[in-house]
Amino acid sequence: MKPKSKWWGWGNPDTTYHLEEHPLFLSYLKTILELPDKAIVTRPNIQDIKIREIRLSGRDIDGLYSILTPEGVDHSDEARITNAYGKSYKDLIRIRLKQFDAVPDAVVFPRSESEVRDVLHWAADNKIEVIPRGGGTSVVGGVETTDAHRATIVIDMHRMNRVLAVDTLSLVADVEPGIYGPALENSLQKHGVTLSHYPESFEYSTLGGWIAARSAGQQSTLYGKIEDMVESLTIATPDGVIKTVNVPAAANGPELTRLLIGSEGIFGIITQARIKLRPVPAKKYYTGYLFKSFNEGIECCRDILQRGLTPAAIRLSDADETNFAFSLIEPAKSAVKNIIHKTGFAWMQSRGYVEGKRAFLLLGLEGTASRVSYERRTMRSIIRQYDGIHVGRGSGKQWYRQRFINPYRRDVLLDYGLMVDTLETATEWSNVPYLHHEVLRAINSSFGSLNIKGAAFAHLSHLYTAGSSIYYIILASPHRGKELEEWNVIKNAACDTILRNGGTISHHHGVGLDHRRWLKKEIGDAGIRLLKDIKTSIDPNSVLNPGKIIE
Amino acid sequence: MKPKSKWWGWGNPDTTYHLEEHPLFLSYLKTILELPDKAIVTRPNIQDIKIREIRLSGRDIDGLYSILTPEGVDHSDEARITNAYGKSYKDLIRIRLKQFDAVPDAVVFPRSESEVRDVLHWAADNKIEVIPRGGGTSVVGGVETTDAHRATIVIDMHRMNRVLAVDTLSLVADVEPGIYGPALENSLQKHGVTLSHYPESFEYSTLGGWIAARSAGQQSTLYGKIEDMVESLTIATPDGVIKTVNVPAAANGPELTRLLIGSEGIFGIITQARIKLRPVPAKKYYTGYLFKSFNEGIECCRDILQRGLTPAAIRLSDADETNFAFSLIEPAKSAVKNIIHKTGFAWMQSRGYVEGKRAFLLLGLEGTASRVSYERRTMRSIIRQYDGIHVGRGSGKQWYRQRFINPYRRDVLLDYGLMVDTLETATEWSNVPYLHHEVLRAINSSFGSLNIKGAAFAHLSHLYTAGSSIYYIILASPHRGKELEEWNVIKNAACDTILRNGGTISHHHGVGLDHRRWLKKEIGDAGIRLLKDIKTSIDPNSVLNPGKIIE
Question: Which of B102, B134, B161, B348 gets the most CB atoms within 10 Å of its CB?
């Protein structure tokens, strides 16, 4: 089942975030941005969107019908509009500006590997651009039409959504790629097992999408990125099917599974994955700590990881993000608790955990009771060595409860004409403080050159013995009518800075169209040539998601 | 520095294993094999080996001299003979039989990436087969001349053996590939860090070889296989250099580093690696347990792994290997201890740990003191649930002390005309007991059809949540003069059985020449085609280790 979701924004149509109900957050926003008194950007009506004529001929449509039956093909305006974009800020702005220059000509819904193969074969023969789509939540232009060929179809995978087999002895399962996060976890947890891959998009993204884009869940520090969770893959190509091996580890030549993971649809379409599972954790413990400075927090996190400890979630906010996070704290229902809260903050301030310097650490432990209790004890004593103080489990619980809420908030801020974007990278520990600082400086200096108000801050959230990801949040008040142009300036400044200073263009969002030119710098001409040669050998007509990752 | 090593056998020329000094082992061998009273196969003299004329022209040699200086090129008979083979049983037998039909024409010793590049360029232009060689300990024909071109050179990497940089903050180091295990660890441990990759070949193999063949160390359950330890790679190809990215994790398209790891020299020659390190463990704790049966041991090991615990080494012997292992126990120096030992065995026997059924578990824990103590406590209580009993730390200590000794033993057994081979696979837990049994049955049935005495047994040694490797040891008394032929029958029976029953052709030895035809079954035509296309794009003249992995 495909979850109902706003075509112009994020998530459940019945869920909205009401800014007015969050006075603390509202006043925080007013201090850092130009915030109008009320929403100024209207949400679009699908009836108002104009799109181009369909470019598929009657014969093309018949061809698709004969593979998929008419029920498996939708070339309505609605389907073409709602499948034109992903969920990046750039996408949502173009939707609100009613910019639908390039839209696909049809959306198809295969039910089996053989239908996928037949569609790809047909597309290769007829030189039709094919865009695979899971939940369509790409934030890097990964599902966008490029008009590389005479027409474009989107392959929406949501009907291939079965959990085919669960082996509770080997802790592996065979799953079709079109399954959404909640359906997958529900189905697995009935067997007492879990994948535990929870990206922020979890409720509206699919297993296939996670694998194609090398996603990371919020608990990746323990469970690994998606590439660590996949034992084998089956992918359909115009030429046939590649199936990798169902073994836990091997020395059988180069690791082909890893070559297919992260290929974002350019080598083929994932039709099945064997995923590695864990028992459902008996215990989850989420809590919060505060450091006197971001740098002390970084040192502490590094120490935790390098001692061989693996918290499920470990997320360290810099000083500005800590402020942002504190503005989102929900007032307690009891007045007494609120007073305790206030007193607590005053005490912290007096003890040297000063606003504008202090850094919040979210720590989440998962596993058997004995493991969680061992880790809790051990990490507490490490954190103390870095002057970290416990701020109570409430902060951890709130984070856990609200861990999928940010994209809803974004929609509301967009109503107010604000720019809201995120970007992320990863680098080694010795470069984390420097890169963190340089990227923020680049973003802030583009606010200056654009003459707009804005704020940017960051957190570390997927940690390794060798380094960490850095995740940036950008809020700004762009000039009306110049949103895309100004976003571009900021994005370019940030990405150029990342690449100049030893970061990767993405830790878990992928490459798509938006990051392509930086990937070229990152992996060099030889790397790009290698990818191109592989692509050409699999897909000589280049119909598979053309233009993504490589030109 | 290249460690001194026997050209016709294993390791340090001054170290030998004297069978006569191990009466327990000797009598064990007599019960299972035809063991002559004394050594019957002489060790070869290099002067007695006849090889073909050198196939490189004077012009070729001048070409190599101009790249490497004469000092970097050796086309002496000795160099050509000692670089003809790896260290498999098949290799050692051919050496003893003086079968040197195909030998390389020269061995070259580059000192830098640019020299490697120039040699590859020269080889591609002149259509010369190039075989990269680290320690030359391949047991799958990975370093063997195939005569694919008019002449063959071996590139011995041992002069590129520097640790270029150690970053103790990020726990990474840049290392050249020709460094041998002990030199690498010595150099790292001076900085308080370690790679902790200890394959049985550790003392005589190199970092580049480990990476090229997807090696696993004896402590891989904690530290990972070599593919988990490499952050980035530089490889030289005839066409230029491919350099992957120095970041701890990324979503930058398909993972090119993993495509190069395990490529066994067919895509290029590794010239540098950035490896991920750990602090030197404060504590190492090795000990032994006994289960009433192999199957109970398997269940226990699975449980340990699936609860999220990661012992450094966890190695479970089946009943026959347990017998073998017990025959290797060194008598204690004190008579009292020996009596205690004997009493202990009798007690075990009476308690249901019966010879021929019982299974020995070697358990090694490494890390901080607090981690080791937590794991020790937790695992002990799990092991108890499966009726495992502690047999004392002596067994763990002996294993640790002797962990690199087996290949020395093999040389002596070869003197006695015995066949000694090992092979290994990996499979998921639900298939472990079945595959374990079927492969042994196939091997035993080939002993029958060949009408020879032999024994085969196995252990699990590299464990994952999803499954385990299974490592087989084969001992047999082949007919003299038919060693290779009979080995072939046994090897084929075992490998066919592995592939028919869901195992991989190798967990950590690689593919080389010997496993090529099973790889084809394992990854299918589509997989082979993909590898071939990648190879062709990088190495259109196919001069790079031709014939390895794919035909």
Answer: B134
